Amino acid sequence: LATKPSYIKSCSIKKADFNECALKHANLALPFIVKGDRDNDIPPMTPLVLPLVEIAKSDFTLTLKNLEVYGLENATVTEIMMNETCMDVLFHLERIMFIASYKVDGKLIFLKLTGEGPFNVTGVGGNYRFNTSLETYERDGVEYVRYNKPNMIYTMKRAYFKIDNLLGTKEGETGIDVNKILNDNWDEVLKDVAEPLENAVTTVVEAIIAKVFMPLPKKYIFAE
Predict the structure, then answer these.
(1) Strands 86-108, 48-57: parallel, antiparallel or unpaired by DSSP?
(2) pTM for this structure?
(3) Which of 84, 154, 174, 191 falls 20 to 30 Å from 13 in CA-CA distance?
(4) Contact 184, 110 (CB under 8 A)
């Protein structure tokens, strides 16, 4: 059996305050998880480093290499609704910053973008809701829990963009300030890439949570 990390505390599924207990202990555990846990193969997340992230839809492709995500150490869990068949968790991040090398090709709002270079995007006042159904399964006579169809949606109060060379070699010739357009229309930009971005973020969050909880027997997550 996997050894339960000392910072993971069990809550009794039979008690009425299970969700309140889970919320309290989630916030106590979060700093330990973000710092990284070598024994449980959880990398440090200050920053979280992702070698490659691709955000794509039919007429738009954005590739981010060596993506660094800053600000996760300030995350808080503001709501948990959970039972043995489903989980819904709401995270709040007042400020999160993404730095990477990018390559883009496609249409974003009304702009046709073809370029590559440094990428810097900051989100402010973000709420990220992760939800999934849960499935109990048995391995070697022990019950475990796994995800089924996880999903994430998010809202932000504001986003700031500083992305160089979005029009390729033509940018300096056109006199168009693409970053000003993106920043003036930040909410439309986020709507335009909402689905592929949510899918990418879901994959990252799922991987992090899975490394912490999925190796643990069900009894460590849902205590009697």
Answers:
(1) unpaired
(2) 0.87
(3) 154
(4) no
